Every structure is written in structure tokens, then in C-alpha cells.
Amino acid sequence: MTLIPIIDAITQLAPNNPIHTGQFGGDGGWTSYIGLFYMVFMFVILFYGQRFQSYMMIRNVEDSLHKLRGIKEEGRKNAIETLKEIGKPSVDITPRVDRCLDYFTISPQSMDPAGIVAKLDHILEVRDQRLLDDVKLMAPQCNDDVQLHNMENTLEAAMALNYLYKVVRHYYIQGKKTMSLYIIMQLQMVLPMVMKEAEAFSAALTAFSFGQPIGDSVGPLIASKMMRGYEVRKVYKDCVVATVPFEGRTALVMKAEGSGGNCGKPGDAIETVIEENQGKIAMLIMIDAGLKLEGEAVGEIAEGVGSAIGGPGVDAFKIEEMLVKYKIPINAIIIKEDIGDAVAPMRKEIHDAADKAIERVRELVLERTKEGDTLIVFGVGNSIGIGQ
Amino acid sequence: MTQNTQQQSPVNKISSYITLIVAIVMGLAIIALFSAAYAYTLGSEYLIQAGFLIIIGAFALGISVVVLYQTRRNATAIKNEETKVMTIIECKNCGTKITRDFQRGDYVFKELGACEKCPEQKQIITGVYKEIKTKEKTYAV
Ligand SMILES: [Zn+2]
């Protein structure tokens, strides 16, 4: 029977076996072989253990890197297809898109930080304009501002994915070249977060290309719900304001102009509106999507003080300057969401939180302002897919 | 661009590699279990060996089944995540609420055509969102 050798092998391993003891040159022949094997094994582990660990980690990183490349390639293809579909360019735009993907921004020199905000603001403005011009060149047939902004956002998401991929690839190759456990380890440690971010950007790209509201659009959604039915006028660069009678007060409800992908310039817009009212503002309420901690529910609402606005800090700086100048109290309302939810198409929980947030605004206004006061409510975020 | 000419996605390669290993382990486990049965038939002095083989066989079989189950679950989990984005259309007059798939050009508070029941009232998009049905895992802390 073919099974006999296996049984033999097992029986030989068993100690004090009456059948096989002493077959290999006396008592415990096999056991000494095993001992030798363990010795060799121990030495291998001792000297090559770290190398082995490095190989395992590199394989792990490699898997993620391949996945990342897949996501990035899909994003690039998606961006090109959207541009072709909407812009109907006469020439092949692929090389131009690839050039855009490698586009970089150098932040201003900060050795002497005085006046850096204006410099940063200027550079960001130039960057946005440059990107928008590029989109216009790639989509000459498109005259729709909404579509242009959506395509710009799509391109930006593709740029972010491209950058993530390149950085991870850089550290991967460097780790492989040096076989240094520490380089590979650093990469492996942050990789789960990087992958999560990549998946979020990938979801964002699809949402942008279709013009769907994202999780971050909850601020504009709330503002839009509040200003619905009242006259809306444009203020400084891509922002809108409506004068809304609210519980006996006058609420100046503001948001970025929709329904194209646009965050506007909240800093300048709020500055303009405050100056228009000669600083006679009883309160500024900012509503924004905020990152939730693990364990918190999506769509949870939290209240606080301070300028609730993300980005590079230019807008927050400008708003704070104005608040200090006129001593205006500032309140913030945040709708909690995950980083993945913030840029992916809006979830129902976040959409449903909008009405609850308006109730919070009402409470805040009733408790902390007097009748006849004027206040500003700003819905911060990307206005994609949200009209007014 | 040169990126297009690079090798195909290795995801399938990796999963087939794992499947091969699982298949080998499973085969060995089954052989071990058969051997155990055979050893048992040989008589009482082979009882220890039979026990050994049963433990090895059962353990290996268990591990391979778990690995196989996990890879399959991962594959299905990725598919489930693609949820459709819906557009909610309402008529303020009669309160009719329609839910349909999102179409390019939809946005919140866009005015659409007249309502079927009340021709003078325009329908309005009141929401664009996706609903995630799968419940998030909660931790009791
Ligand atoms: Zn109706």
C-alpha cells in the first residue's frame, strides 16, 4: 500500500516506538537529526530573520502598490473620458492630461512668515486659474461653467491619485534598493491610511465627473435649504448670499455658488459681507463637514466655536482677522463624517443631518442673539451638485 | 503613455497562487485523514499514529477552509460596495415623492418639468444621495 511510508514516517517520529527504535544507528537516531535541523533553523532565523521580515513587508507593500496603480490608472482613464465626452476636443488630449497630472505647486518661502497668507493666497489663486484654463483648452466646446468646474475637480482628484501612487512607489523602490527594514517599515505603517485616502479620491473622481454632491457638500446643502425661496445675489468670487428673515432676525445665508464643483473664497466673501454691514453682525455661524473619529456615527452633529473651515488656512485667517476687527462672536456646527465619506457621493445619513443642523442653527440664534440682529450663516464646502 | 504597456494587474495572479497552496494543503490533509483511517484498521498498536494523523489532517483542512472562505468573502465585499446614487424628486404642492437613478445634470434644488397631478407646479430635486445598506461593524466600547 502507498500509505505505508507515511505511517512509517510518523511512527518513526514517535518516541519509544517498539517497532522502529534503533533503526538508524542506535537509540534516538532520528531525534538527533531533528535537533540538528532546529539548530540550523535557529541560525537562519538569527541572521536572516530581519531580511525575511523585510521580504514579507515588501510583498505586502507591493500588493498595495499594484492596487494603487490600478486605482490611479482608472482615475486617469475616467478623467480623460469625461473630458472627451463633455469637451469634445478636436485633438487627442491624453498628453495634455498627463502633463496636468504632474502639475505641482510650490508653497511660498516661510523663513520670514510675515505676509505669507497673501502670498499663499495669490499662489493658490494662480493655480486654480491655471487649472481652469487648462480645462478650457482641453474642452473648447464646453461653455457651461458648471461642467468646467466639475471637470477641473475631476482632474484634481486624478492629480491627487497620481501623486499618492508616485510617492508610495518612490519609497517602495527605495526600500527594495536598500533592503532597509526601516524604510519599508515606515511605508508599511502608513499604508492602510494611504490606501483609504486613495479609495476616497477614487470615489471622489467618479462623483466629480458626474456632478454628484459629495459628503463635504453638506455645508452648502444646509445653506441652500435655508436660502431657498429668497433672492440670491453673487458676492466676491464664486460665492452667493441671500437675505433671509429668520426667527425675527436677519440671516445673511452664504455658500459657494453651485451646482458646479466649487468651494469659492469664503474668506473674501465673508469679509465683503461684513464690510457691507459696517461690521454690525451679531454672530457668524459656520457649518462644515468635519472628520469623525472612529466610533462616532456618520451624520452626528457637534457644536463649538472657531472658524470651521479646512484648506490651507488662508480663508480661516481672513475670517479671524475680520472677527477680531469687529469683535464678532463665531460659532461652528460640524457634521461628522469619515474621510472616505467626505469626498465620496453624499450618504443618506449626511443628507438627513441637514435638517437637524438647521434646527441647531435655530436654537443657537434664539439663545444667543436678540431680535432684529443681523447674522451670517456660511455653509462651508464644495458646492458640487447643490443649486441655490 | 508607457504606463499602459506595463504588466497586467497581478491581483488575479496572487489569488490563483493562494488557491494553489490551499489546494495542496487540502489534498495533503485529506491524505492524512485517509491514512488515519487506514492506521486505525491496522490494530491497537497503531492507535497513537492514527490520532496524530487525525489531528494533523483536521487542522490542515480547517486552516485551508478558513483561508478559502476569507478570500472569497473579500472578493464579494468589494462588489457590494458599489451602491447607486439616487435622485429624490418632490412636488411641494401634492407631496408626491419619486426616487430614481442619478442622471448627469441632476443637482439639488433643480427645477424639473411640471408635476403629473398639478400641472402648474414644477417638480424639484430635493436630494441626491446614496444609501449604504450594509451595516458598519460596531465595537462595544
Ligand atoms: Zn404635484
Please characterize this protein's 3D structure:
The complex is a heterodimer of chains A (388) and B (141). Chain A is an alpha/beta fold and 388 residues long. Chain A folds into two domains: 51-210, no CATH class; 215-379, Rossmann fold (3-Layer(aba) Sandwich), CATH 3.40.50. Chain A is built from eleven helices and seven strands. Chain A has helices at 4-13, 29-87, 94-101, 116-138, 145-178, 181-210, 218-227, 266-276, 314-326, 339-343, 348-368; strands at 232-235, 239-246, 249-256, 283-291, 301-305, 330-337, 374-379. In chain A, strands 1-2-3-7-4-6-5 form a seven-stranded mixed beta sheet. In chain A, a hairpin with a 3-residue loop joins β1 (232-235) and β2. Chain A starts with a helix and ends in a 9-residue tail after the last strand. The model of chain A is unreliable at 18-27 (pLDDT under 50). Chain B has a four-stranded antiparallel beta sheet with strand order 2-1-4-3, with no helix packed on it. Chain B starts with 10 loop residues before the first helix and ends in an 11-residue tail after the last strand. Mean pLDDT of chain B is 78; it is low at 1-13. The interface between A and B is large, with 39 and 37 residues. Zinc ion binds next to loops of chain B.
List keywords for this structure.
heterodimer, A: 388 residues, alpha/beta, Rossmann fold, 2 domains, seven-stranded mixed β-sheet, 11 helices, globular, B: 141 residues, alpha+beta, four-stranded antiparallel β-sheet, 2 helices, 4 strands, 47% helix, disordered N terminus, binds zinc ion
